[in-house]
Amino acid sequence: MSPGASTEPQTDPLARLAELPGVPAAVAGVREAVDAVYGHRVMRRRSPEVAAEAALRGARASAALAGADWALEEVRRRGDFGGDEEARTVGAALRATAEATESLGIWRGSPLRVLARLHLVAAGGPAAGPDADRIGRPRLAGEAVDEPALAALPTAPGADEVAVRLAALADIVVAGSAAPALVTAAVVHGELLALRPFASHNGLVARAAARLVLVGGGLDPKAVTPTEVGHAEQGQERYLAALDGYLTGTMAGVAGWIAHCARAAELGARESVAVCEALQRGAA
């Protein structure tokens, strides 16, 4: 894996990332922001509504980062996402976001199975066409990545390196970590974007997997904090710049990426507080 390459044995390689400069403060900031959502009076009775709205907004934002920046009301209004490329991207984001929640019980035991499933639901369907045999599995030798939204990144590793690093990531997930869920989610998110293990839809898969880690890791058990909104709000340029830092494998670069993910989570929590306020006004 990229962060902190070392020959020393590491029983919990993510734990030391939680101690990098700036990371403890970032984690504390996210915890405070998420607590503000969970402490809102609307959450006592209407948390499923908040979660549904968070999923919709998170999927819309993830699609925007993948090149389909639709207005929220357009996503809410549409029932058919099988038209042009942007519509298919929005549909893929909606499916991947929903699948992440459904996969919580499988993730810790079979993370690679979940990643394959996320790609299957995102990239599958009638539009798959001649690429159907590349869906739901990592790239094979010689297969390229077709993902314009991530084209500015360095060339993705080859299939052999992807297999090794995916296995290492899976081992870390299965073993568990004392690191905060935010740190684990940032590493899962960053590593999947670094590897781009699938022929397409890697961004959607990475963001759905990060959502899954935050929910399953206990930071956001009711799935009411759409961190994808925070990533989109900060903008594609800053998103990719922070990821470039992760790709360096330096402690500063990895810490910067974690901090960027933390800010996204804070902004996502702020979005859900606004949703709670809107629901409260509607109920009044």
Topology of helices and strands:
Layout (H helix, E strand, L loop, with lengths): L22 H16 L4 H23 L6 H6 L7 H18 L1 H4 L3 H13 L35 H17 L5 H15 L6 H15 L10 H8 L1 H13 L2 H33 L1
Protein name: Oxidoreductase
Organism: Streptomyces mimosae
Please provide a written account of the structure.
- This protein is mainly α and 284 residues long.
- It has one domain (23-126, 134-283): Orthogonal Bundle (Fic-like fold), CATH 1.10.3290.10.
- 64% of the residues lie in helices and 0% in strands.
- It is built from twelve helices and no strands.
- The chain has helices spanning 23-38, 43-65, 72-77, 85-102, 104-107, 111-123, 159-175, 181-195, 202-216, 227-234, 236-248, 251-283.
- It is globular.
- It starts with 22 loop residues before the first helix and ends with a helix.
- The model is unreliable at 2-9 (pLDDT under 50).
Short description:
This protein is 64% helix and 0% strand.
Summary keywords:
mainly alpha; disordered N terminus; 284 residues; Fic-like fold; 12 helices
**N-to-C span:** 51 Å
The CATH class label is: Mainly Alpha
Structural class of the secondary structure composition? mainly alpha
Number of H- or I-type helical stretches: 12
Number of domains: 1
Return the average pLDDT rounded to an integer. Answer: 93
Instruction: From the 3D structure, determine the CATH topology.
Output: Fic-like fold
SSE string: HHHHHHHHHHHH
Q: Biggest β-sheet: count, sense, barrel?
A: none
What is the molecular shape?
A: globular
Radius of gyration: 18 Å
* Oligomeric state of the chains present here: single chain
Unreliable runs: 2-9
